[in-house]
């Protein structure tokens, strides 16, 4: 059974650019959640999608957005990148909303903004 | 206010000994879930163990057990017979009920070092 696939693994972008990250959940999982991980703030919840609908949102500015497709794949977009957006972005899939019985995480996308 | 608190930034344990990683939580929901995840240096988060708020018995998964004390709102992870491969960051997490919007939030983590 394939795990959660995140692409790309690494990204380097310039301030002001935008970036799109992709996540393919485990087959059968309809929930995809995104987290930002930084040394200073730890793991911060970005948003969750379930059956193509955003079900939850964390406290991030509107520059952070996402969507989910009918095959449960999800994309996350960050516009007008800032240096502080440099982080490891983790995608997590689960059967139920909010990772009710545990998440399966992808390997993450490490974004560096220069 | 912190909802998940891990007070140990770093811990050392001798190989083959047991270690307890502390976690306290705060929620007003009667129904919630508690989890522990491991993050090795590779970065991928690995699910270790789950405890539901209504579960009567402490959860166990191989060498991992969760010491659930509901009245104290603590959910400590016990790793028995530590191995060198257990060296990693460990995160305690809670999935809140309706009051918390069914989100899963994470503590700051504890870095465990296993000594040979």
Attribute tags:
heterodimer, A: 114 residues, mainly beta, 7-stranded mixed sheet, 11 strands, 0% helix, B: 116 residues, 4-stranded antiparallel sheet, globular
How large a portion of the residues of chain B is in β-strands, by DSSP E?
Answer: over 45%
Can you tell me the overall shape of chain A? Answer: globular
The overall average pLDDT of chain A, rounded, is: 94
Total count of strands of chain A: 11
Helix content of chain A: under 10%
Indicate the proportion of strand residues of chain A: over 45%
| N-C termini distance of chain A | 37 Å
* End-to-end gap of chain B: 38 Å
Q: Which radius of gyration of chain B do the C-alpha atoms yield?
A: 14 Å
Globular, elongated, flat, extended or rod-shaped: what is the shape of chain B?
globular
Strand count, sense and barrel status of the largest sheet of chain A are: 7 strands, mixed
Helix and strand content put the structural class of chain A at mainly beta
Question: Strand tally of chain B, please?
Answer: 12
Count of individual helical segments of chain A: 0
Regions with little confidence, pLDDT below 50 for 5+ residues of chain B: none
Radius of gyration of chain A: 13 Å
Mean pLDDT of chain B: 94
- N-to-C SSE string of chain B, H for helix and E for strand: EEEEEEEEEEEE
* Major sheet summary line of chain B: 6 strands, mixed
In short:
Chain A is an all-beta fold and 114 residues long. In chain A, 0% of the residues lie in helices and 53% in strands. Chain B has no helices and twelve strands.
Task: Note down, in words, how this protein is organized.
The complex is a heterodimer of chains A (114) and B (116). Chain A is mainly beta and 114 residues long. The model of chain A has no long low-confidence stretch (mean pLDDT 94). Chain A contains no helices and eleven strands. The N and C termini of chain A lie far apart (37 Å). Helix content of chain A is 0%, strand content 53%. In chain A, the strands form two sheets. In chain A, strands 2, 4, 5, 6, 9, 10 and 11 form a seven-stranded mixed β-sheet that branches. A four-stranded antiparallel β-sheet of chain A has the order 1-3-8-7, with no helix packed on it. With 116 residues, chain B is mainly β. In chain B, strands 2, 5, 6, 10, 11 and 12 form a six-stranded mixed β-sheet that branches. In chain B, strands 3-9-8-7 form a four-stranded antiparallel β-sheet, with no helix packed on it. Chain B starts with a strand and ends with a strand. In chain B, 35% of the residues are buried. The model of chain B has no long low-confidence stretch (mean pLDDT 94). The A-B interface holds A 33, 35, 42-43, 45, 48, 55-56, 58, 88, 90, 92, 97-108, 110 and B 33, 35, 37, 42-47, 50, 91, 95-96, 101-109.
């Amino acid at each position: 059974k394939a795990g959660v696939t995140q692409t790309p693994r690494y990204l380097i972008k310039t301030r002001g650019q935008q970036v799109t990250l992709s996540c393919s959940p485990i087959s059968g999982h309809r929930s995809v959640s995104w987290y930002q991980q930084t040394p200073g703030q730890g793991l911060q919840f970005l948003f969750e999608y379930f059956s193509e609908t955003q079900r939850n949102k964390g406290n991030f500015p509107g520059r952070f957005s996402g969507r989910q497709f009918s095959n449960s794949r999800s994309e996350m977009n960050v516009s007008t990148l800032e240096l502080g957006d440099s982080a490891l972005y983790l995608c997590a899939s689960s059967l139920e909303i909010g990772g009710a019985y545990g998440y399966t995480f992808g390997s993450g996308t490490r974004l560096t903004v220069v | 206010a912190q909802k998940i608190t891990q007070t140990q930034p770093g811990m050392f344990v001798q190989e083959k000994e047991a270690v307890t990683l502390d976690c306290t939580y705060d929620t007003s929901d009667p129904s919630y879930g508690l989890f522990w995840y491991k993050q090795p240096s590779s970065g991928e988060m690995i699910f270790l163990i789950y405890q539901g708020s209504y579960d009567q018995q402490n959860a166990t998964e191989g060498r991992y057990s969760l010491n659930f004390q509901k009245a104290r709102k603590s959910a400590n992870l016990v790793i028995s017979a530590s191995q060198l491969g257990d060296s990693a960051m460990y995160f305690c997490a809670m999935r809140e009920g309706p009051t918390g919007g069914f989100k899963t939030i994470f503590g700051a983590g504890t870095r465990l070092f296993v000594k040979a």
